[in-house]
Design the sequence.
């Protein structure tokens, strides 16, 4: 897994968490 792909996955995870909190 490249660093870029890892960062994208982390960003998607944070977005999902924010959406669930909303």
Sequence:
């Amino acid at each position: 897994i490249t660093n870029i792909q890892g960062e994208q996955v982390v960003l998607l995870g944070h977005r999902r968490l924010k959406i669930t909190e909303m």
Notes: The chain has a mean pLDDT of 83.
